[in-house]
Write a structure and sequence with these properties.
The chain is an alpha+beta fold. It has 12 helices and 11 strands. A hairpin with a 2-residue loop joins β2 and β3.
């Protein structure tokens, strides 16, 4: 490899991964509260292990009976596809320890005396976009997600038999002059039934690599560099094989390591938490900037303090050749966007129950829906950023 060449790798995990089961349940709790009252406050953490689910956290809003939440947890597990001896939607023991939000936190976030509400916590959030894919996402994470998403779709339809919910993927790509030119290796580990041997698992999974990654990137891929269940059989999986927790797959959720991450998880948090809402806003800005043709890539950082409504700082980084445009872009952002927590929620319509679907296969690079899901993926500000 030359000095301008390097390998870069990103991974994804499926909705049946134990940590993702937890993200799904936590986001279901957020949606449950927001569907009853759009100004609800939720911070929900979930733990899963062998046939057990535990919910804990803080809420403020409508009263939701424990039995209603427990039934919804079972529906999440059922939809993911778990009805196994070690983890089943029918028999899992489910406990919930949700309680009222701290009055100290509420005081810092609530608006009063004509003062806009403050951020729900301090922190830094990053947004990123690049021209490596049509969705303006880094290629390795986008392809890693797509492989698992297509597998899950076919598994649920019944056309991919013998493959169970817990899966992981990893795509390595060669970059030349900062552009991806080919895939050098793919790793997929997937839970499967006892009836399938490893040869059969490989036979079933290889087509999903071909469906997910453009042929131009696969032409030189050595078959020996496709690793399917490299440790051998993978029968015991999900929360029975490994304990799961909310918020442990934050790099999977964002850009696969191709851009910085502020450190905070998204799932289980209502949109007053800037960990979530400001990360969505920064992606929204970065994506529109790149879509406008300003630069091949854009990184944006926003910083907040608890109880303070405006961001403390805005950092923008474009491709090296475009750095002279940063001041103009920052001026456009300051003039045209309200990046207070309330401003972000109103701009992106975040007070709706739109979060459960975000819990697997990435929060970014997805298609905006008619009911408001992935509103931060719209490119409706392109004209504003054309310089």
């Amino acid at each position: 490899m030359t000095k301008n060449s390097y390998l870069f790798t990103s991974e994804s995990v499926s909705e049946g991964h134990p940590d993702k089961v937890c993200d799904r349940i936590s986001d279901m709790v957020v949606d449950s509260y927001l569907s009853k009252d759009p100004v609800s406050r939720v911070a929900c953490e979930t733990l899963t292990t062998t046939n057990k689910v535990v919910l804990a956290g803080e809420t403020r809003g409508p009263k939701i009976e424990k039995d209603e939440l427990i039934n919804k947890v079972r529906n999440c597990i059922k939809d993911i596809g778990y009805d196994q001896e070690g983890f089943s939607w029918k028999t899992a023991k489910i406990e919930t320890f949700l309680h009222e939000q701290s009055s100290d936190i509420a005081m810092g976030v609530d608006s009063k005396d004509n003062k806009d509400e403050g951020a729900g916590d301090q922190g830094i959030m990053f947004g990123y976009a690049c021209k490596e894919t049509e969705e303006l996402m880094p290629a390795p994470i986008y392809f890693s997600h797509k492989i698992l998403r297509l597998m899950a779709t076919d598994r649920k339809k019944g056309s991919l038999t013998g493959i169970e919910p817990d899966s992981k993927s990893q795509v390595s790509m060669l970059y030349e002059n900062n552009k991806p030119v080919k895939v050098t290796s793919v790793v997929i580990s997937t839970q499967h039934s006892k009836e399938l041997n490893q040869e059969k698992v490989r036979e079933k999974i290889i087509p999903y690599i071909q469906k997910s990654i453009p042929q131009k990137y696969l032409e030189d891929l050595d078959p020996k560099e496709i690793y399917i269940n490299p440790t051998g059989q993978f029968i015991i999986g999900g929360p029975d094989g490994d304990t799961g927790l909310t918020g442990r797959k934050i790099i999977v959720d964002t850009y696969g390591g191709a851009a910085p991450h502020g450190g905070g998880a998204f799932s289980g948090k209502d949109p007053t938490k800037v960990d979530r809402s400001a990360a969505y806003a920064s992606r929204y800005l970065a994506k529109n900037i790149v879509a406008a043709g300003v630069s091949e890539k854009c990184l944006i950082q926003l910083a907040y303090a608890i109880g303070v409504s405006k961001p403390l700082s805005i950092f923008i980084k474009l491709a090296d050749k475009d750095e002279a445009k940063v001041k103009k872009i920052k001026d456009l952002i300051n003039k045209n966007f309200d990046l207070s927590p309330r401003g972000i929620r109103e701009m992106l319509n975040l007070n709706n129950p739109i979060y459960e679907v975000t819990s697997a296969y990435g929060h970014f690079g997805r298609k905006p829906s008619n009911n408001g899901e992935f509103s931060w993926e719209k490119t409706d500000k392109v004209d504003l950023f054309k310089l």
